[in-house]
Design goal:
By secondary structure, this protein is α/β, with parallel strands linked by helices. It contains 14 helices and 6 strands. Strands 3-2-1-4-5-6 form a 6-stranded parallel β-sheet, sandwiched between helices. The structure holds nicotinate mononucleotide and 5,6-dimethylbenzimidazole. The site of nicotinate mononucleotide (NCN) has 24 residues, from strand 4, helix 6 and helix 11. One of its GO terms (molecular function) is nicotinate-nucleotide-dimethylbenzimidazole phosphoribosyltransferase activity.
Amino acid sequence: MTDKTTFDADLQRKIDMKTKPHGALGRIETLAAQIARVKGSLMPKMQTCQLTIFAADHGIADAGVSAFPQEVTRQMVLNFLGKGAAANVFAGSVGVDLRVVDAGVKGAPFDQPTLLDRRIAPGTSNFLHAPAMTETQADEALQKGRELGRDGTWDAVAFGEMGIANTSSATLLAHKTIGVDLDVLTGRGTGLDDAGLSAKHAVLQQAAKRTGQLNAKETLMEYGGFEIAMMAGAMQGAAAAKRVVLVDGFIATSAALIAAKLEPDCRQAIVFAHKSQERGHAVILDAMGGEPLLDLDLRLGEGTGALLAWPLVQAAARMLTDMASFEDAGVSGPA
Ligand SMILES: O=C(O)c1ccc[n+]([C@@H]2O[C@H](COP(=O)([O-])O)[C@@H](O)[C@H]2O)c1
Ligand SMILES: Cc1cc2nc[nH]c2cc1C
């Protein structure tokens, strides 16, 4: 038997010896097993978590694909720093630390000491007409992300984003990577009405036609965003550092898709926090074999779904570390 087979057998035995009918903790058992594998331990510590919110702007916003104006990206960064956003409130309620990264917000650099400046450029190019970013920019974003993912001593890390028009970017990343039709993938984002949705669909069709088949790196360059590229790198870095990686909604999942295409090993560390209301999310989750923990009709981003899922991750690890076995507790096993 290989070491991995022995580890997996010991892990399953440990879960099955806990004081519960076999399988009775359902997906918490699968989650616990995944955490144990990521940590390489049958007693995984899962006490600390940090959320990183990556913010950036998108040239495609000029094509009128969002219900909100582009300046909201910048305004929301200031709202995060002022602790007024949903992500701040949820992070406080579940005991998660939060940091905000400027990956490429439009306009001048911020003068904000608590904001991490990892700017690649003040927004991507409009991918309707040209690649969103150069190869150098994509590489730089991935690399800065990897460094951020390896930072610190957190047991788990969560990733979320903020960027007006980034559902358009995520939709094209998914379309070019999975090959599913834009009709199935294109959604309302921040809340487009029917007319807005069909205009967005037409823009994305036109943008998709600009290129043929692409590999993952080319897809990122053609249609990505700086926050998405940096988040993909951060997922790779965190997975390499044996951290559980909590992935938020539609856009964060598109980053996970690219991260795993570029570096398949990082997939095993990824926990999909929730299923977003954004139309294409279920499609990407399916393609990645991901089973989201929550389904709360969220469509906010910022890491809000990841924050809400954190207590489940903690509970799953504590099932392994703290729960009594039949033998410990003197409880009879199945007849
Ligand atoms: O996380 C999600 O599933 C999600 C779904 C829809 C919208 N969002 C957020 O809304 C913004 C993008 O929407 P849009 O319509 O501007 O493309 C961006 O800031 C995301 O954080 C996020
Ligand atoms: C207000 C607002 C908050 C957000 N948080 C993440 N994406 C967002 C988009 C908007 C429009």
